[in-house]
Amino acid sequence: MAGTEVTLRFPPDLAEQLHVLAVASNHSVEDLVVSHLRAALARGWPAEQPTAGGAGSPRPLQRRDSEALHLTTCLALDRSGRVSLYRHGSSGAGGSGDSAADGGGGSAAAGTDALYRSESAAMYLSAPIISLVEGLLTDETTVGQALRHGDFGLGTLNKLDGELVVLDGVVYQQAASGACRVVGPDEKTPFMSLTFWKPEKAWQVQLEMPASGPLQHASLCSQLECSLPSGNIFYAMRVHGRFRRLRLRSVRKQQVDRPLRRVAEDQAEFEIGETAGTLIGFWSPHFVGFSLTLPGFHFHFLADDKQRGGHVLESELMEGEAWVQPLYNLASGMPHTEAWRGADLSRDPAEDLVAAE
Question: Which parts of this chain are annotated as the region Disordered (predicted)?
């Protein structure tokens, strides 16, 4: 590794965040950072490879690097959504790390911070979830319109006609029977939660699987939550693996608008045996309350065969991988209906939403 220079640049005030984590983990700040760099170097990072800027140009952090550096990356994302992590070859042709980072290296500068310079993806809500809580189950927003804001997420169709999963830009409906179908762009939705899934922005959570059996859903959520560097932003979450069992639910299509709490009394619950599939979901900060979206975790499931799925109540993961993507921006639409414009939304929806979930 002779001649290789690795530079970490953290946003202002991150030292305090590092110190808090170091104390909690009984490590020094230096040990915390260096141990993750060593892990990356042991796996062959940074590898010599050609770049647009030629020999010596900074190489952007790759996804395989973020697997080894996920903790360091998370810490940086907590403050500003970017980390400067790059290297120079032994020839030194790209100049010093500072000059490249500051834009003096031509195409080399374009590569620096490539992973985190672009804007973070946003959590997009087609409508506040309070609309469903209060029984406003119909909107004029089409699925195609909602998909302008993301290719990953969940939701429902008008009249609460089943559960929706959005994976890789395709929308699947899980009906009350548990059967799945692809949803057309002209179908209408009263609520969808979406983002653009960006693998290069996500980090992998190293799941600790119990020796005694599958990882239960509550434990999975606990491990995911422990990996979050801040409780004050949104996160998209994707868990793919083999499950021993899942308990799911899907709501039945309503003939008339009625509050979500009453709808939930008649929801369909069912179990799926051993299967491979993906949990698609979000974690939302608690300060959003219960009016915009559901605080904490919200997961839907889609089997790999695309034939089964639903809202997740319980899961038992035998093996799998979990990925988390931070979302620093929030955007929400509003229902385009007279019912929404005239509704009294002054009461706290928390009790009803918790009961429905």
Answer: 88-109
Report the alpha-carbon distance of residue 71 to residue 32 in Å, rounded.
9
Domain shared by 133 and 272, yes or no: yes
pLDDT tens digits for range 272-282:
999 999 999 99
Confidence of residue 263 (pLDDT cuts 50, 70, 90): confident
Mark whether 269 and 339 lie in a shared domain: yes
Amino acid at position 285, single letter: P
Residue 239: which domain range?
Answer: 122-356
Contact 83, 21 (CB under 8 A): no
Evaluate whether residue 116 is within a structural domain. no
Look-up of token digits 């140009």:
57
Q: Note whether 254 and 218 are same-domain residues.
A: yes
Please report which confidence band the pLDDT of residue 32 belongs to, taking 50, 70 and 90 as the band edges: low
DSSP string, 200-243: GG-EEE-----TTSPEEHHHHHHHHHHT-S-SSSEEEEEEEEEE
Task: Give the span between the Cα atoms of 320 and 272, in whole angstroms.
Answer: 17
Amino acid letter for position 99:
S
Q: Are residues 89 and 143 in the same domain?
A: no
Q: Tell me how long the chain is.
A: 357
Q: Is 260 helix (H, G, I), strand (E, B) or coil?
A: helix
The residue whose two tokens read 């308990």 is 247
| Same domain, residue pair 201 and 150 | yes
Q: How confident is the model at residue 309 (pLDDT cuts 50, 70, 90)?
A: very high
CB atoms within 10 A of CB 335: 20
Rounded Cα distance, 179 and 173, in Å = 8
Same domain? 131 vs 107: no
Q: ω before 46 within 30° of 0 (cis)? A: yes
Q: Quick one: tokens of 292?
A: 């915009």
Q: Yes or no: say if 81 and 116 are a contact pair by the CB < 8 Å rule.
A: yes
Number of domains in the chain: 2
Between CA 238 and CA 167 the distance in angstroms is: 10
Please report, for the domain that includes residue 196, its CATH number: 3.30.1330.80
113 touches 84 (CB < 8 A)? yes
Asked whether the beta carbons of 60 and 86 are under 8 A apart, the reply is yes
